[in-house]
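Summary of Year 1 activities. Much of the first year was spent building the evaluation harness for sequence design. The harness presents a backbone, in tokenized form, and records the residue chosen at every position. We chose the following record to illustrate the format because it has been used consistently in internal testing since the harness was completed.
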């Protein structure tokens, strides 16, 4: 079984590192967003909902915005920003 993984912000330093790591694995299907839709909140949320797990590699405000719009309790998100650190 392959797990669907979406890295929101895969173009930044943290996102690139995570993307490079997962590219080497055959049990992970990376979900990619089109370059012109990177800032499109609806397109990003669609991929977050489709993924088994999503990594948010975004500035704090964008990470908070993405998480606040998710309505499904089954969505799994790992936020690499400082927005949700405890």
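For this record, the design step produced the sequence shown next.
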């Amino acid at each position: 079984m392959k797990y669907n993984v979406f890295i929101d912000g895969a173009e930044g330093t943290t996102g690139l590192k995570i993307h490079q790591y997962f590219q080497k694995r055959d049990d992970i299907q990376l979900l990619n967003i089109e370059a012109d839709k990177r800032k499109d909140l609806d397109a990003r949320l669609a991929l977050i909902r489709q993924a088994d797990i999503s990594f948010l590699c975004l500035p704090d405000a964008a990470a908070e915005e993405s998480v606040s719009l998710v309505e499904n309790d089954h969505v799994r998100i790992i936020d690499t920003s400082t927005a949700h650190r405890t």
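The two ends are 32 Å apart (CA to CA). Quantitative recovery figures across the full test set are reported in Table 2.
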